[in-house]
Design a protein that fits this description.
Blueprint: E1 5-6, E2 17-31, H1 34-46, H2 51-74, E3 79-91, E4 94-106
Parallel strand pairs: 1-3
Antiparallel strand pairs: 2-4, 3-4
Length: about 110
């Protein structure tokens, strides 16, 4: 198994794009947890970071990124450039995190 370069730049510095493999994407839908909602409600009163939600978003970002990388790997790419993230509400209490970029082979 080889590593995939992931960058939000349009190129990989010091490398040339040898082939273009197209758009790759990964996503995950995460639902809120009742326990987190209760704690978030309390935090809204006193202020501070909502650590449960921070952890939820971090996990979602990692899953979406990994799925995008796997798609790039199956296309024969060794890099994903111009990576972006997006979120959207699916239903009340559930959100999608979407990662996308351009799969390329660099050398």
């Amino acid at each position: 198994m080889y590593n995939i370069i992931v960058t939000n730049l349009e190129t990989v510095p010091g490398m040339n794009i040898l082939s273009h493999h197209g758009l790759v994407q990964g996503n995950t839908v995460q639902a809120k947890h009742v326990g987190r909602d209760i704690m978030a409600g309390l935090k809204n009163i006193v202020g501070g970071e909502l650590k449960g939600y921070t952890e939820l978003l971090q996990t979602a970002r990692e899953q979406a990124t990994q799925r995008m990388i796997e798609e790039a790997r199956t296309l024969g790419a060794n890099a994903v450039i111009n990576v972006r993230y997006s979120t959207s509400s699916i239903t009340q209490g559930a959100s999608e995190l979407y990662a996308y970029g351009t799969a390329v082979k660099v050398g």
